[in-house]
Amino acid sequence: MADWIYFIHPPRENFASTMTTEESAVWRIHFERFERLLHDGVIVLVGPTLGDVNTGIAVFEAPDEAAARQIMNEDPVIAGGYARGELRPFASMHWYRPHH
Which of 52, 62, 50 is nearest to 6 (CA)? Predict the structure, then answer.
């Protein structure tokens, strides 16, 4: 199993604070899907960047590029044209950070 990352590029700056009702509904479905993929152990890390540019990232496992591309392309915001996806292989470095 390989690690992959896809970037979710929203259609405009300040997207999180300017979503329309329609966009918000699709993003809710997108979030619910990520929760399922996280629960299933597919997703390693997911979340948006903060600030004026709200690019999202999803780090996940897939056996090959075709499977990784399918996971990205089935994201409701990508499939629906509400955001642009960008897939790349990812070199995950696992480390232990003790709690303070």
Answer: 62
Query: Domain for residue 54, yes or no?
Result: yes
Q: What are the structure tokens assigned to 69, written together?
A: 């591309």
On whether residue 96 sits in a domain, the answer given is: no
Residue 41 falls in which region: left (phi positive, over 0), alpha (psi -120 to 50) or beta? left
CA distance 10 to 98: 35
Q: Extract the tokens encoding 92.
A: 């995950």
Alpha carbons 58 and 47: distance in angstroms, whole number: 7
Nearest to 82 by CA among 19, 11, 6, 30: 11
Percentage above 70 pLDDT, the chain: 93
**Kind and range of the H or E run holding 15:** helix 15-18
- The tens digit of pLDDT for each residue in 28-40 reads 999 999 999 999 9
| Counted domains in the chain | 1
CATH of residue 29's domain is 3.30.70.1060
